[in-house]
Amino acid sequence: MLEVRDVAAGYGKAQALWGLSLTVSVGEIVTIVGPNGAGKSTLVNVIGGLQPAWQGSIDLDGVELTNLATHRVCASGVAVVPEGRRVFPEMSVSDNLDMGAYHREARRHRDETYAEVCEIFPRLAERAQQLAGSLSGGEQQMLAIGRAMMSRPKLLLLDEPSLGLAPVIVEAIFDVIREINKTGTSILLVEQNVVEGLELAHRGYVLEEGRIVREGPAADLLDDKELQASYFGM
Amino acid sequence: MTRSSQSQFLRGIILLVVLAMIAAACGSSTSDTTAAASPGTTTAPNTPDTTAAPSTPDTTAAPSTPSGDPIIIGSTLALTGFLAPTAAIHKVAGDLFVEQLNANGGLLGRPVEWVVLDDESVPDQAAALYERLITEDGVDAIMGPYGTGTITAAMQVAERYGYVMPQHTGSLTYTYGYDCQFPAWPAGRNPNITNSNLVFDALESTGTPPATIAFVINQFPGTMYVAYGQPDTDEGGAVSIAKDRGYDVVLDIQYPSTTSDWGPIAAQVRDANPDFLFLGALGVDGPNLIAAMDALDYQVPGMFLQWPAPGPMLGAGPSADGAMSVTAFEPHPPFTDDPAYAAIAQAFTDAAAAAGLPYTAFETQASASWAAWQILIAGIEGAGSLDQAADCDYLLNNTIDTVFGPIDFDPDQNNYYGDLSYVKQIQNGDWVVVWPANGAPDGVSVQYSPGG
Amino acid sequence: MTLYGQAIISGVLAGGLYAMMSLGVSLSWGVLKIINLAYFSFILLAGYGSYELATSHGWDPFVTVLAVVPVVVIVGALLQLFFEKVKIGEFESLLVTFGLLIMLESVARSIWSADFRRIPSTANPYASSSLKIGDFAFPTPQLSAFLTAIVIGLLMKYLLDRTYFGKAVRALAQDRDMARAFGVDHRRVAVILSGLAAATAAIAGVFIAMSQALFPGLAVEWFGIVFPVVILGGLGSTLGALGAGVVIGVAAAIASVAWGPSYAPLATFVILIATLLFRPEGLFTRKASV
Amino acid sequence: MKLLQFDGIHKRFGGVAALGGVSGTLEEGEILGLVGPNGSGKSTLINILSGFAEPNEGQITFAGVDVTDTEAHHRFEAGIARTYQIPRPFSSMTARNNVAVSLIFGKTKLHPSDATDRALQWLDFAGLAGFADQSVSELNLHQLKYLELARALASEPRVLFLDEVLAGLNPTEIEESILMIRRIHDLGISLVIVEHVLRVVNALSTRIMALNQGLVIAEGAPEDVMKDPEVVRAYLGSRWKHA
Amino acid sequence: MNRPTVVRLTGFSVLALALWFLPALQGPLGFPIFYLLFGYSLLFWFAQASSWNMFTGFSGYFSFGQGAFYGVGVYTTGVLASKQGWPLIAAIPVAGVLAAVLGLSLGFVVFRLRRLQGEIFALVTLAVAFVVAAIARVSSTIDGGSGIALNNVQLPEFLGAYPSMMFRLGLIIATVTIFAAATIQHSRLGWGLFSINDDEAVAESLGVPTFRHKMMAFGLSAFFAGLSGAVHAIQISYITIEDVFSIRIPLFVIVMSVLGGMRHWMGPIVGATIIHTLTDRLNRASDLELFGGNVTVSLDHLNDIIIGLLLILMVLAVKDGLWPRLVRRKWVGAGAFIVGILVARLWAPEMSLIGQFVAGELGAVVILLPSSEVIDRWRNWRSTTGSPDAPSDRPGVGASR
Predict the structure, then answer these.
(1) Which chains have at least 3 CB atom pairs separated by less than 8 Å from chain A?
(2) Hey, are the CB atoms on A195 and D239 less than 8 Å from each other?
(3) Residue A212's beta-bridge partner residues?
(4) Do A48 and A64 reside in the same domain of the chain?
(5) How far apart are CA D78 and CA C39, in angstroms?
(6) In sequence order, what are the beta bridge partners of D191?
(7) ipTM value of the model?
(8) Does D38 touch chain A (CB under 8 A)?
(9) Confidence bin at B52 (pLDDT 50/70/90)
(10) Cys bridge to D198: A233, B395, E69, E307, which one at CB 3.0-4.6 A?
């Protein structure tokens, strides 16, 4: 479904991705693991249209996403849960969710999607009128995921959803991701938390210094003793 | 558009703009010296010959076409800035005067050209520009600017070079020690005393003078001077005169020129509930305060405004009826008994309308401007030369005919010649002179009774 | 007591007009990050437009809104389009729009002359009428300006709080990239928003023409009112601008009555300085706990 | 000898504790590696030690002097220098002038006209002599990072914090940078390096301190720390079975 | 004192000394006396623009406080020299000190509060100018609304007749101010300010005492603005609150500095020269006939339109100002300057000296304006129009503040 071919990208003068290719199939959970600074966030931003690709191509179900205007990417079925949540802090929870349903197609189904999201995240329903900035980290993460779901994506991009959260909450979040996947949404998860990230996934990639160094079924990667060595540079 | 054609486009625009600037800059500086084009061509063909300016005493001969190099008269005016609204009137009056002068044979047989620079209402700018007019452009004579600050600044330049400087509207009479400055505004050396006495006399002429009076004064040098006397000496001033005359001063406040909310001031006046309101007003302060008082459903029995823009007062509705101000000339008898002045008043009205001014009557401001021009021309004609000392001498030693009547400058009084002001009042929707009686049309008198 | 009461009423009502004059600058600055001084020209030109229609064509001053607002809206939107094209920064926008302001003032001067223009009372019966309640009077132009300001404030508040457009506006202000990631076309939103902001400026201009005299130099004099309101109200806050307008109007009115009108500016600016020092985010904005 | 010592450093942002009481030391001549997953508080710690941010609690001693409340520019004069993860050159200046600033204001306190001459020496050290009079906008990321090194070194600091000097560089550039860091160490400067590329940290550091969620979880020789189960779990997840 | 400073000091002294005798040459050379006063005005704007620029241009902190500092200077002369009878010469330094005290107390508060950076700083300084005006308005010791006539001030007559005296006073103050600006630029203070301009936090971490440097620069800037305000009061001759505290001073110093370039002490001087000569020559209420009388342009209002347009063009197209371009292409600029003068002479042989100068300077501006930057900018525009939504730059990159 998602096909990323030979993508290079970076910030300003810093190149973060060096000709990287990957795929995500329908209904799949794919996890990309790798240490900080490996280029994971850049990858998410490039697929989500937040950042241009310097070279290469990205397409989703045959639709070319490469360097599409940012505000058009969402409508073609990709939704981002960015690193650090980036909820709109001075808007209420329900307004944040509405922003997820901003593009026309999603807006039409807003009420039903809203109900689905509230079912998955009852806490969000409870706090619908609270300002997003006043939520706890875990709640903000839920909101960020809920907001992305509101756009009824084919592909959900998650960038380090476990970051800075207590293990229990991480657990809960990963459960939710699994649940979302069951409804048919493909998921591309970027994680530095290797075990949790890969246990969730069907397939995985290991990203290091802007390149994919290993790929395969998630279970194989988890069994790969060398992964640790490569991770710690020993 | 392709990339290169677009960058060419932007370049082109920049180039055009800059070229236009060059053209403008050069054009203006060349015209300083080469604008010898016959002023006759700019004269409106419909100017009737009967409007021979009475300023030129020896127009006994039939008007002839002026010839020779033009005589350049330089001045600045506040074409922009906060004085611009009123300065616009002086521009129209001056243009008209010069046009008529040229149509009637010019000055000393030569055409006259008036060079106006914009002092932006700023005194330092005015001073610099007069310096330029006199020493660089080498103008033959100067006319004063409009505005108290700019006049004060310009006068120092005129004094340095011994130029005759007629000035129409300077209100700080006590600062004008220069012997060759000739005030046209006929309010006398001590407007702080004479102005309020005139007004109070007018009120008392009705037999029912006010018992209580409120002073609301714009924080502008001239209005402050009239109301409170000269700063730091406090001699005279409307407030102390009112007290001396036994009026009860129930309110005495000052407001900044930039006042935008008139409600609180109106509320204060209503609270004081005076028999008479003395408003040290400029521009549109009057209509603004009247509207604010109207909105409180409150009208003062009578009010005086120092130097209002006359037009907006007439549009201020019925509550403005009965409002008074000072004037020296109004376009009605007896002022227009002289047909020449009647014609001038009409010509001014036409010219002002053509220039897009909203209020076109030939009254105080325009007539002061006219008088200043008359003084300047009388000096030159009288002395028969452009020699400034001779002109000054002539003016100091002769009686000069002006739109305000014959005047004699008295150097001991800073060249003021007594207060020729009149009190005018809005009656039946128009300004009319009501006091002293010799200025009022037949059957017109001061309308005021504190009872309402 | 009546004196203070009436002065306060006057201050409150004036505050409504101040708020409308300030809303454009506030929204543009707070949301679009453009300090747009051209709104001062919009107010002035709208005032002149209203004057022209009322005086020369006999329109009721209130009705002139219908003709004046659309024109100004288009101009405001086009200007924003230009800013989006040249990708202008905050300080650059201040300088560029200042250039525009003095150019437009010049244009106004060449069209309407430097002299005062005031709709005569015959064409404008509202200037001196008022609503009276007991001893207190509510002047019609100020009252209607105040009510309009409230309506506009509430409408804007509704627009910003309830509609997708408004949410997009706020989202853009808080996190431009994320808003775009969810489908917000920032250029379109910016252009529409500045059109709306220009509309409020135009309405303010109509009310000004209704209650006072116009002259080209007026625009610069409004700086002393608009900037305090914008800062006090908090950038981009509609109801904040309304509240700030009232605070400033009332402070000036009370100072005017208590110590004399010459103290009114002092009161305004002392409040402004105090706000800048102690609550630079404005008096009326609530912040999410950070 | 203890060059730098910090005790019980706490830092809270809003309600969130970024650092929950971190203590440690830096010996003269050491290269201390600071590691930990994203959000573990490494950058915050560097910011606090270099005077960029103020701790809520805790004490910092540098060369025996309490510098907890000392402003950043005084710490720099005293010999604490740093670089930035994303280079922050003075963008309107030439490379030479960037270095000159620290010669003028740092320990050396040179007069501007002397500083611009001396700057060349440090640019040369960083291999940027050829770019001395170019605007920094013409430098690539690698060169900008070297420029930051030159700028930091110019004032002859005693300790230098390197915040992700290698991020965004290609493998050749990374190798070069490692050599550069060694050369800097050879000048007798103690280093604190924060780095995501752990193999580099391992190769360079004499000692490693691992942070997670604002607390020190391990400290010691590189090979020991990298095998520390807590560290492995912090990086790879709580159930990494090979730990 | 080190060598460059000595060289600079010598240069400035020689130049100032040479100009000092210009008034004496007025007779022999036969130029209009107006040129002395014009020269004074030019020097006044040099001093104002340079004093503003030595803080704002160098440090990047945008101050609208110039109006307040200038106003304090003007009113010091008004109160001390006119009302209290001090000689002008004694009032001038006091004016500088009072303005500096205002600047330093303002700086002490705002530089301590980090949240007052950026536009908020600009607005605080604007508000301070309003407050100073509001205080002058209510205090009758200062003004109280009546204004102050300065025709009784004891002028330093040993400096010559009025135009010569003003020229020399202006010369002293402009020289001192420009010398200070040039010295600051090349001193530690200047280096500190420039690094604050680029990235204040990094500057602090590289040892720049940012607070102290900002205070020093702001204080000096206010001091020189006050000095030149005090002299200018004499030229105004009748001071009122509305005039003195109008937007004119802060506006013009900004336009001049932006036009000339804010990162070099010569920038404000170039900008002031262009703006002042141009506005002076454009100042004429008349109609201008172009193209053989087919097009008539009213010059009454052209002044403002040109200033506005220049400001817009400069901000959009020439961000660094003209000075750096002039340095880069001095021969081209000089050539265009001469061509401009020649064209003007051919077109209007009797044109005044200042007019010719303006023609030359416009020639130079035309040549220097469209540079590669303009074209780059245009290309950027084009490319953003091509793909309507190139994502914005990442936040927090480099030194953008």
Answers:
(1) C, D, E
(2) yes
(3) A207
(4) yes
(5) 52
(6) D31, D160
(7) 0.85
(8) yes
(9) very low
(10) A233
Share of chain C above pLDDT 70, in %: 98
Domains of chain D: 1-24+57-69 (no CATH), 79-158+166-188 (3.40.50.300)
The length of chain D is: 243
Spell out the residues 6+ positions from residue B389 whose beta carbon is closer than 8 angstroms to its own: B162
Which chain D residues have a beta carbon less than 8 Å from that of E321? none
More confident site: A176 or E319: A176
If you measure CA to CA, which chain C residue comes closest to A150? C182
In this complex, is the C-beta atom of C253 within 8 Å of any C-beta atom belonging to chain B? yes
Helix H or strand E encompassing E184? helix E162-186
pLDDT digits (tens, 9 = 90+) for E143-193: 888 889 888 889 898 898 899 999 999 999 999 999 999 999 999 999 999
- Residue A22 gets the label, from left (phi > 0), alpha (psi -120 to 50) or beta, of beta
Chain E hits for C228, CB-CB cut-off 8 Å, are 127
- Rounded to a whole number of angstroms, the distance from the CA of E396 to the nearest CA of chain C is 13
CA distance C98 to C85: 19
Same domain, A146 and A161: no
State which fold the B32-187+363-413 domain adopts: Rossmann fold (3.40.50)
Chain D residue with Cα closest to A15: D168
The whole-angstrom separation of Cα E284 and Cα B118 is 6
Q: Residue E359: is its pLDDT beyond 50? A: yes
Domain ranges of chain B: 32-187+363-413, 191-327+422-439
C119 touches chain B (CB under 8 A): yes
Nearest CB to B267 within list C10, C119, C260: C10
Averaged pLDDT, D67-89 = 89
Helical segments of E60-87, H only:
66-76
Task: Give B 182-221 residues with CB within 8 A of chain E.
Answer: 219-221
The two three-digit tokens of residue E87, written as one number: 């000689």
* E399 with D89: Cβ contact below 8 A: yes
Asked if the Cβ–Cβ distance from E188 to D105 is below 8 Å, we say yes
The answer to whether D106 contacts E2, with C-beta atoms less than 8 Å apart, is no
Contact D114, E197 (CB under 8 A): no
Please tell me which of the candidates E389, E394, E397 has its beta carbon nearest to residue A69: E389
Contact between D90 and E195 using a beta-carbon 8 Å cutoff: yes
Domain topology for C2-278: ABC transporter involved in vitamin B12 uptake, BtuC (1.10.3470)
Selected residue of E166, E284, E296 to mutate for chain B interface (largest B Cβ count, 10 A): E284
Best mutation site among A88, A109, A156, A159 for testing chain C: the one with the most C CBs within 10 Å? Answer: A88
Give me the residue spans of the domains in chain C. Answer: 2-278
* End-to-end Cα spacing for chain A: 36
Please check whether residue C29 is in contact with residue C236, taking contact to mean a CB–CB distance below 8 angstroms: yes
Q: Spelled out in words, what is the top-level CATH class assigned to the domain B191-327+422-439?
A: alpha beta
The string of pLDDT tens digits covering residues B355-364 is: 888 889 999 8
Average pLDDT score, chain B = 84
**Angstroms from B119 CA to nearest CA on chain E:** 9
Q: How confident is the model at residue B238 (pLDDT cuts 50, 70, 90)?
A: very high
* Residues B129-147, mean pLDDT to the nearest whole number: 92
**CATH code at A21?**
3.40.50.300
Band (C74; pLDDT cuts 50, 70, 90): very high
- Rounded to whole angstroms, the Cα distance separating A73 from A85 reads 19
CB C150 within 8 A of CB C174: no
